[in-house]
Amino acid sequence: EEDPIVLSGVPIGRSRRDATTPRVFMSHVDLAVTETGDANVTISATETFHAMSTEVRLLWLSLYNERRLREGFEMKRLSFPLRLRGVYDEEGKPVAFRHARDSVLVGLETPLKPGTPRTLRFEMEGPILYRLGGDNYWALDDEEWFPQPSWGAKHYTVRAVVRVKQPFTPLASGTTIRRIVDGDFNVLETRSDKP
Fold first, then answer.
1. What are the strands of the beta sheet with 154-165, ordered from one edge?
2. Residue 61's beta-bridge partner residues?
3. Which residues touch 76 (CB under 8 Å, ≥6 apart)?
């Protein structure tokens, strides 16, 4: 099945210069990232969402199904699968979702209403850690390796706990809260209080 090719995109009822207001924005994410060996990682992302002006029953977030990278002079394409194991509400009950084509759709049993935030937990795993060029590091940049709304709806603060097997050392943006050794793991906890 081929993806459609867009030949032209024209806004309806507004000018291209008019800023659009997202229906939903994300205000905070708690990340727990654990390297489990052989390029595998488990990711738990607990995210807080707010509706802007109308009720929302469906969240449409970016989350790739596979991490795609290019490497070398021949620019060979590399592909690493990422699996969304589950989505859970505040009480830990499963929430309906569909993960395909680098997006995840989350169906909300009760609508997200303006003024009432909603927290969801996403559990992912996959062999997405790759040492580009065989170097002694791997990086997860600002890609969609955890569920995120569209660019205009990203106004979130972050708390992250990163666990990597020794001898690797975790690095992350934000203020360092703690850095410890826990068995075979080097652990870093950081916090970013500004979006």
1. 83-88, 118-126, 40-51, 24-37, 154-165, 185-192, 175-182
2. 104
3. 70
pLDDT higher than threshold 90 for residue 59: yes
Nearest Cα to Cα of residue 82 among 97, 103, 96, 61: 103
Query: Looking at the DSSP assignment, which residues form a beta bridge with residue 40?
Result: 37
CA gap 21, 4 in Å, rounded: 26
pLDDT, tens only, 1-11: 566 777 777 77
Which two structure tokens, joined as six digits, stand for 74?
Answer: 């021949």
pLDDT digit string, tens, across residues 121-154: 999 999 888 777 778 888 887 778 999 998 777 8
Any idea how long the chain is? 195
The two tokens of residue 120 are: 């969801």
* Mean pLDDT (whole number) for 42-60: 94
Q: Do residues 24 and 8 lie in contact, with contact meaning Cβ atoms separated by under 8 Å?
A: no
Question: For the chain, how long is the longest CA-to-CA vector?
Answer: 59
Measured in degrees and rounded to the nearest 5, phi and psi for residue 153 equal -105, 10
- Count of C-beta atoms within a 10 Å radius of residue 55: 13
